[in-house]
Amino acid sequence: MDLDYTMLGQLTQIFGPSGSEERVAEFIATQLRPYCDELKSDTLGNLMVLRHGTGKKIMVAAHMDEIGLMITHIDKEGFLRFTPLGGVRIPNLVGHRVKFSTGRVGMIGIEKLEKPSDFKLDKLYLDIGVSSREEAEQVVHIGETAVFVGDFVDSGTRIISKTLDDRIGCFIAMEALKRTKSTHELAFVFTVQEEIGTRGAKTAAYALEPDLAIAVDVTATGDTPKAHPMSVELGLGVGIKVLDHSMITSPQVKRWMALVATENRIPFQWEVLEYGGTDSGAIHLSRGGVPSGVLSVPTRYVHSPAEMLDKRDVESAVNLLVALLERATEL
Ligand code: CO
Ligand code: ZN
User: Fold this and answer.
1) Which residues, by Cβ under 5 Å, contact ligand 1, an ion?
2) Which of 18, 55, 160, 299 could crosslink 218 through cysteines, CB 3.0-4.6 Å?
3) How close is the Cα of 105 to the center of ligand 1, in Å?
4) What's 11's domain CATH number?
5) pTM of the complete model beyond 0.70
6) Which residue range(s) make up the domain with 78?
7) In this predicted model, what pLDDT tens digit does every residue of 219-272 receive, in sequence order?
8) Are 124 and 251 contained in the same domain?
């Protein structure tokens, strides 16, 4: 399968923490304009890419935002304190670099700890290489956000990069739109603010009133040393979600997804994620309820500067999404 991984590389490096997704939206809009009938953005900043048709109205959702840090305080010496924007894990922060929208880079340091239990977020600071508050205020301001620095690396079978959560979902949705011959009414929604509580998906689903929704996002794996037991592995195919903290997939949608995968010989894995959620968590509760499913891309080190996934899983995700969009009448 001929997927444009160079484009994925570009997509992962675009600045887009929750609430500041404009650059990502602009990139996606430019790429998809030739493949759609209509492009629009809503009040919150969701990008809606529409392909008109007859039959079911299908919403495909992938979130544009990434986790980040927001500056809360600047001290006399010019060190910054911050609050997390989304599910930031402290061990993933120390020693790493983050970047502001301006390109300014900072390094996350930690105070001397008296005891291991002091290892908390308020012991961390951001050093942007200045020596006073005045100097710091010339380059950053309170309320400004920063995201991880993390190169895109393509090792052949696997990919390592920052922000595969969820630019890989955006990428899969984009590739599916380019390929689909579906005659249904398609609304590809690139959502905002997923990482802080699926806020974009909520208003988009309400406005669109879809008959069916499919979110595409990453999921964790159980295939690293002494990982929490979980039956998802890199390279074994796209995940079909059964449950996470935000939803239980309806048996009907789940069965239909698995049937279409099996008939098209697309490898898949059942995904049970004991925490976290995705846009479908918000969408399936919209209005009177929307039949919703999730295609999950198995990903190691989610929410770190170096997330890792397997290209074979990306290919099965694109293939399955394309097949589902064509077969939706069966549901
Ligand atoms: Co995430
Ligand atoms: Zn995500």
Assistant:
1) 165
2) 299
3) 22
4) 3.40.630.10
5) yes
6) 68-148
7) 999 999 999 999 999 999 999 999 999 999 999 999 999 999 999 999 999 999
8) no
